[in-house]
Amino acid sequence: MDLDSYCESGQMSLSQIDPAELSPGDFAHRVRRAVEDDGVTFLVIDSLNAFLQAMPGEKFLMLQMHEMLSYLNQQGVNTLLILGQHGMIGDVRSEVDLSYLSDAILLFRYFEAEGRLHKAVSVIKSRVTPHESSIRQFGIGANGITVGEPLKVFEGVLTGAPAYRGATPLLATQAAAALA
Predict the structure, then answer these.
(1) Where are the domains positioned within the chain?
(2) Calpha distance 24→51 (Å, rounded)
(3) Which superfamily, per CATH, for 4-179?
(4) CA gyration radius for the chain?
(5) What is the pTM of this model?
(6) Rounded to an integer, what distance in angstroms lies between the CA atom of residue 179 and that of residue 173?
(7) Rounded CA gap, 93 and 106, in Å?
(8) Which of 23, 3, 19 is nearest to 11 (CA)?
(9) d(Cα 169, Cα 175) in Å, to the nearest integer?
(10) Interatomic CA distance for residues 17 and 15, integer angstroms
(11) For the chain, where are the E strands, in sequence order?
(12) How far apart are CA 170 and CA 174, in angstroms?
């Protein structure tokens, strides 16, 4: 994505932060300054894994995150938190559970099918609106984001090792056929 024009116009600001050089308190202070001084209304933290590594213990991370997210909510700031999970396929785990602090949770998973690596997306939680519970194939490419039909013909997609039970071609199969 070409983000230069958004950064140059001041509509967007990107900051790379090294958690080894910035304490969680300093990070929270920077976030607060961005909201109060710069009028930030949408904040993305990618990823919480680095923030977790900077904290001495999980309970402190939860307290710090709770305080910061409560403040952002009170200020009307929409916040997107990204948390990487350990493992790509099979038993995927996270060192921290922030689900109680989240209004919505999307789960992205890799899975193997037809000798290829695929991606799936599902809405796990939506506190404020009803949501569908289907698991859909997901892709990002030159034409943007693609979300496929529900993967009704698979069982075990979220395990990373699904069993295919249907005849509908997958997105990667369709793309490969188009290139041939």
Answers:
(1) 4-179
(2) 7
(3) P-loop containing nucleotide triphosphate hydrolases (3.40.50.300)
(4) 19
(5) 0.74
(6) 10
(7) 15
(8) 3
(9) 10
(10) 6
(11) 42-46, 78-82, 104-113, 116-126, 135-141, 144-150, 154-155, 163-164
(12) 6
User: Would you tell me how many other CB atoms lie within 10 Å of the CB of residue 95?
Assistant: 14
The Cα-based distances of 45 to 28, 59, 69, 78, 81 in angstroms read 11, 19, 11, 11, 5
Burial class of residue 120 in the structure, from the number of CB atoms within 10 Å of its CB (0-12 exposed, 13-18 middle, 19+ buried): buried
- First vs last Cα of the chain: how many Å apart? 27
* Cα distances (angstroms) measured from residue 145 to each of 109, 119, 121, 126: 15, 12, 12, 21
For the chain, the residue count is 180
- The answer to whether the beta carbons of residues 85 and 50 sit under 8 Å apart is no
Say how far apart CA 112 and CA 119 lie, in whole Å: 9
Residues paired with 8 in a beta bridge? none
For 127, left (φ over 0), alpha (ψ -120 to 50), or beta? alpha
pLDDT tens per residue across span 120-170: 999 988 888 888 889 999 998 888 899 998 988 888 887 767 787 777 666
For 25-59, what is each residue's pLDDT tens digit?
888 899 999 999 999 999 998 877 777 776 665 56
